[in-house]
Amino acid sequence: MKTKGALLRENNKPWEIEEIEIGDPQRSEIKIRMEAAGMCHSDHHLMTGGIPMAGFPILGGHEGAGVVEEVGEGVTDFEVGDHVVLSFIPSCGKCPSCKAGLANLCDFGAMLLQGEAVSDNTFRIHTASGEPVYPMTLLGTFSPYMVVHEASAVKIDKDIPFEVAALCGCGIPTGYGSSTRSGDVRPGEDVAIVGVGGVGTAALQGAVVSGARNVIAIDPVEWKREQAMKFGATHAFASVEEAAMSIAELTNGHMCHKVIVTVGEVHGKDVDTWMGITAKAGTCVLTGMGNMMESEVTLNLAMLTLLQKNLQGTIFGGANPKLDIPQLLSMYRMGKLNIEDMITRQYRLDQINEGYQDMLDGRNIRGVIRYTDEDR
């Protein structure tokens, strides 16, 4: 079927809305009418080349929610009319990682940037002129329709607003899990959240729910620091350097048991700065993405060893998508997780460049594209 999509044709150029052709669902695939798509910083990394796809043009978007319109052969877990969240990492449930309880490291993840459907290794999306299109993480939520493998979808209750559900495809479980799973925040611990955009605000809420004593938000944007206090932060600072002395005073010199780094772009030169506010035997969790070509890191190895600190990477916050996404939405329903107030602005598909500029300018916690009939 013909529809629209936001494409990148080269690095550091704006998103372009073009006509695309979406193929029919094959075995183990479902076709989804998209209702909402979150505007995550990782898609901006596509534009800059920080996340290199296997080719151009690229269909962006890896965070979204919609309604199942058609199911392919062999699909048993979904039926037409189901509401779903798209998980940016598929979970097959059968590979060694999934069986070991590491669904966020599913073997299907090895194919996320190749553009070819995991069901038959063909391109499911093409431009109007017939060029193959590379969808972000095999999804491409910046289009009002998509065909995806069933491993990339999670069924949800139909009373959940689509714009809320969309954020649970990446930002919410990534941030929340960075605190609760990868960071393993315990009651009474002191926690710093470095960067309080969408993922950082979810991490902040995860630390609060886990019973952290002091939750210190660090972000250069004053408005974001103000918002962080509304979401449960106990203190807020513009930089790590500004925060360091206060953290020492708050913790009697012990510093933070857990430091969760959720900045929009990680640079290796900053790692030792974040480790500097991490306590002895504490853990610094790197959640934010850096350029995949960058390999230089500044780190005092002696202090890493002598103070027995931990530097922990995480993807998807260590989440199990099929389990955690419904659980997080049930917490939202019970008023224990504030997702609605994280949605700062909603945009049309043709406003995508405006939305990403707002993100870069620090005006959004999370922007959301809300699809209408005009987009279809």
Automatic annotation (TrEMBL):
Signal peptide: none
Gene Ontology terms: cellular component: cytosol
Domain Alcohol dehydrogenase-like C-terminal residue range list: 198-330
Domain of life of the native organism: Bacteria
MF annotations from Gene Ontology: alcohol dehydrogenase (NAD+) activity; S-(hydroxymethyl)glutathione dehydrogenase [NAD(P)+] activity; zinc ion binding
Gene3D superfamilies reported for this sequence: Medium-chain alcohol dehydrogenases, catalytic domain, NAD(P)-binding Rossmann-like Domain
Keyword entries, A-Z: Metal-binding, NAD, Oxidoreductase, Zinc
Keyword Metal-binding attributed: yes
Enzyme class at the top of the EC tree: oxidoreductase
Sequence ranges assigned to domain Alcohol dehydrogenase-like N-terminal in this UniProt record: 28-157
UniProt record similarity statement: Belongs to the zinc-containing alcohol dehydrogenase family.
Protein name as annotated: alcohol dehydrogenase
Annotated organism of origin: Gordonia aquimaris
Phylogenetic lineage: Bacteria, Bacillati, Actinomycetota, Actinomycetes, Mycobacteriales
